[in-house]
Write a structure and sequence with these properties.
Elements: H1 2-20, H2 22-29, H3 31-47, H4 51-67, H5 71-87, H6 91-108, H7 115-132
């Protein structure tokens, strides 16, 4: 129990630091690093099963990624949005986001942005959808 409380305290402290310094990160390191900060915040929420709050930061990451033409970050945000919606039981949105992520990942080629992971997540949720409708 103490370990869990310590872990939650660490997450909370990390979130506070990241959220307080987002603008400084963007000014000092650029918008691409702001994408990474949003990604880290989203991951913290996702690891705590707060998928709705994780999506808030994924949407912000996606917005900055599109403005900066950062296709790798865009793909990552779309993948996580798809994963989160799948975990929340909204398989339609999950499939839509994962499909977008897969399309961009395929365009970029190679597996540097996790084409395999996106494909596997899409396949997993597809199986859940098809078995739940039978």
């Amino acid at each position: 129990m103490a370990t869990l409380l310590d872990k939650n305290s660490e997450y909370s402290r990390a979130l506070t630091i990241l959220e307080e310094h987002l603008e400084a990160i963007a000014i000092s390191w650029g918008k691409r690093e702001k994408c990474r900060a949003y990604q880290m915040i989203s991951r913290i929420y996702r690891n705590n099963n707060d998928f709705a709050q994780s999506n808030v930061y994924c949407e912000r990451q996606l917005s900055v990624a599109k403005k900066t033409n950062n296709l790798e970050s865009e793909t990552s945000a779309l993948h996580v949005l798809g994963y989160n919606y799948g975990r929340m039981g909204d398989y339609g949105k999950a499939m839509a986001y994962l499909g977008q992520a897969l399309a961009i990942a395929s365009e970029l080629g190679g597996d540097r942005i996790g084409l395999t992971v996106v494909h596997e997540t899409l396949h997993t949720f597809y199986q859940l959808v098809t078995t739940s409708t039978k």
